[in-house]
Recover the amino acids of this structure.
């Protein structure tokens, strides 16, 4: 998880440079920001602060925020990224989900009796863009999976369904987070994955990616009747196939 913090700090630092560049184009705003910063430094260096010093802190913070919010769109982006990232990390550390589901530490694998696929009907549904989620924690009819996620860990359990004797597809587009697929033994797996940084784990194969793309097959792929094709694009995160 350390790499997520490094990436977050790099993005915030780059946005801070953009903020400074935008302020330099507005002399009045730049002057007020510098004055507010100097006032804050002066007050915080004092060993004893009176009520007037507290007033100075409040006024300086208000002026600083107003000048940044009014004159720098990049500062808005910094705030949004910081709120989203720190919020997700807070839910992750507490073991809970942004949408009220249990966290990764509370998850368990539940194996139940599977059912044969039935005639398929079209349907409309929504998937989460943020937070941890688990697909397939109860018996379900298999259908190809296509999902887009901005941030969060994803667990797809194929132990509670029966894959047809054909090529089955999982398509994943994700910015940040780990993806784990629980795949029964005897199902051939092909992974085509691209990532800025992360690992791909399939059976005994572990492939580290740094701005790379890889295509890898399980040893039994050509001999099995039921096959799973996983096509994934991730900015930062791992993709792992776990046999069950």
């Amino acid at each position: 998880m350390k790499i997520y913090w490094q990436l977050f700090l790099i993005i915030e630092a780059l946005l801070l440079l953009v903020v400074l560049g935008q302020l330099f184009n507005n002399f009045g705003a730049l002057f007020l920001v510098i004055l507010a910063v100097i006032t804050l430094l002066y007050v915080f260096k004092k060993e004893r602060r009176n009520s007037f010093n507290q007033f100075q802190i409040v006024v300086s913070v208000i002026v600083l925020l107003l000048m940044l919010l009014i004159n720098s769109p990049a500062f808005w982006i910094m705030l949004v990224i910081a709120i989203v990232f720190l919020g997700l990390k807070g839910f992750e550390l507490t073991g809970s989900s942004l949408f009220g589901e249990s966290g990764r530490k509370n998850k368990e694998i539940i194996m139940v009796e599977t059912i044969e696929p039935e005639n398929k009907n079209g349907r409309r549904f929504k998937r989460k863009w943020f937070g941890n989620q688990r697909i397939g924690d109860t018996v379900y009819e298999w259908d190809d999976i296509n999902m887009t996620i901005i941030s969060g860990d994803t667990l797809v359990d194929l132990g509670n369904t029966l894959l047809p004797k054909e090529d089955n597809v999982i398509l994943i587009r994700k910015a940040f987070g780990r993806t784990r697929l629980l795949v029964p033994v005897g199902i051939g797996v092909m992974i085509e994955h691209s990532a800025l940084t992360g690992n791909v784990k399939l059976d005994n194969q572990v492939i580290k990616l740094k701005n790379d793309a890889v295509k890898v097959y399980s040893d039994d792929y050509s001999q099995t009747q039921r096959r799973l094709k996983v096509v994934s694009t991730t900015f930062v995160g791992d993709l792992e196939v776990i046999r069950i």
User: Anything to note?
Assistant: The beta strands are 133-135, 145-151, 154-157, 167-176, 179-183, 188-202, 205-217, 227-236, 239-243. The helical segments are 2-24, 27-45, 51-71, 73-94. The chain has two domains: 2-94, 112-243.
